[in-house]
Write a structure and sequence with these properties.
single chain; 380 residues; alpha/beta; four-stranded mixed sheet; 17 helices; 11 strands; 15% strand; globular; binds NADPH dihydro-nicotinamide-adenine-dinucleotide phosphate; binds magnesium ion
Length: 380
């Protein structure tokens, strides 16, 4: 019997994780957390009966407590609530499905408590990868990727000697604006950016896919997860999103993982690793697919991808600036305060103004995040 905690249970990854729980009768839920979606969290608590649950919003947490008077569930709120959920005694795995750097402290708490991590929250690895990966080693916990590309890499590497890994081929759909020019992107709207061709995801990651900042975050995520150099990671635009990523070995043999786009596969694989369980999903029909195509990313139109490599090369606190500036800029874009190309411009400008802190501590990372927000606030 497996017992899990889910941070961000009301989101796209969170709800799909609960779908996986629904179809496997040997996994139970110890804790659930959400930001403010009280209605959905209440429903989830009634269905999955966790020991505790938390909302970020204190007032909503109080209301939730009242609504759940008839149930034996502890309700908490804020960061304290998330930390408690992340490290709850009875769970053996924490699924990190919150969006953004808010996931850093709970992920650290979960590792300290000896929980394996099913990691969707890539912003945590991008900003604190050096801390998370070395802690995971020290506490002997597994970091199992949920991101579809990283799961594909992980699945392709399975059983192979890591020393023979030559390259990672990280695939990207190219997002809704693939093939467009930088000039075209000046006019795109929030609605245009939220139309992803192949995946239905949370709003932030959908915008990140449109800017290709998501692929930049994933390059840094892959660097930490698989302990490779940046020049061993090649981004390949593959609009059909059928090859979820691939690895090339020393003998130039390439192993890839393919399938129809369905996040429940990488989620289920992380939950039950190394077992492969049946999944009720659409099988890939190669005849219907017919062709797969590949192209190089366009670095002029999608400046964010190049900025990610730049941030990763600079190292230290620079990936935090890259990520924090993006988080703030995407929120401003979704609020219609800035245009689409401003997202990459804000990231670039924030990076230019930053003095790198090498080997930043968690405190340095959180201070860098706050300083980046202040800087952006003062200029836009
Ligand atoms: P969503 O926006 O759909 O969900 C985010 C979750 O986090 C929700 O449960 C939300 O609660 C909660 N949350 C938001 N703000 C806070 C806060 N301040 N404090 C506590 N909880 C908060 O995101 P996704 O599921 O799309 O993405 C989650 C993570 O997974 C991201 O890091 C993303 O990059 C990564 N990922 C997602 C993929 C996908 O297919 N969606 C694919 C690969 C990676 P509420 O509902 O109450 O707002
Ligand atoms: Mg991905």
């Amino acid at each position: 019997m497996r017992r899990i905690s889910i941070l961000g249970s009301t989101g796209s990854i969170g709800t799909q994780t609960l779908d996986v729980v629904r179809s496997n009768d040997d996994v139970t839920v110890a804790a659930l957390t959400a930001g403010s979606n009280i209605d959905l969290l209440e429903k989830q608590i009634r269905e999955f009966k966790p020991e505790m649950a938390a909302l970020w919003d204190e007032y909503k947490a109080k209301e939730l407590k009242l609504r759940l008077k008839d149930m034996a569930v502890r309700i908490s709120y804020g960061m304290e609530g998330m930390l408690e959920a992340a490290s709850i005694e009875s769970a053996d795995m924490t699924v990190t499905a919150v969006v953004g750097m808010i996931g850093i402290l709970p992920t650290i708490a979960a590792i300290r408590a000896g929980k394996d991590i099913a990691l969707a929250n890539k912003e945590t690895l991008v900003t604190a990868g050096h801390i998370i990966m070395s802690m995971a080693k020290a506490y002997n916990v597994k970091i199992l990727p949920v991101d579809s590309e990283h799961s594909a890499i992980f699945q392709s590497l399975n059983g192979q000697d890591k020393k023979s890994l030559k390259r990672i081929l990280l695939t990207a759909s190219g997002g809704p604006f693939r093939g467009r020019s930088a000039k075209d992107l000046a006019k795109v709207t929030v609605e245009d950016a939220l139309k992803h061709p192949n995946w239905v995801m949370g709003r932030k990651i959908t915008v990140d896919s449109a800017t290709m900042v998501n692929k930049g975050l994933e390059v840094i995520e892959a660097k930490w997860l698989f302990d490779v150099d940046l020049d061993q990671i090649q981004v390949v635009v593959h609009p059909q999103s059928v090859i979820h990523s691939a690895v090339e070995f020393a003998d130039r043999g390439i192993i890839a993982q393919l399938g129809t786009p369905d996040m429940r596969l990488p989620i289920q694989y992380a939950l039950f690793y190394p077992e492969r369980r049946p999944l009720n999903t659409e099988p890939l029909d190669l005849f219907e697919l017919g062709t797969m195509t590949f192209e190089a990313p366009d670095p002029v139109t999608f400046k964010g991808l190049g900025l990610a490599y730049k941030a990763a090369k600079a190292g230290g606190s620079m990936p935090t600036v890259f990520n924090a500036a993006n988080e703030r800029a995407v929120a401003m874009f979704l609020d219609r305060k800035i245009g689409f190309p401003d997202i990459a411009n804000i990231i670039e400008f924030s990076m230019q103004m930053h003095q790198v802190i090498p080997e930043p501590s968690v405190e340095d990372i959180l201070n860098t995040e706050a300083a980046t927000y202040d800087f952006i606030e003062s200029r836009w």
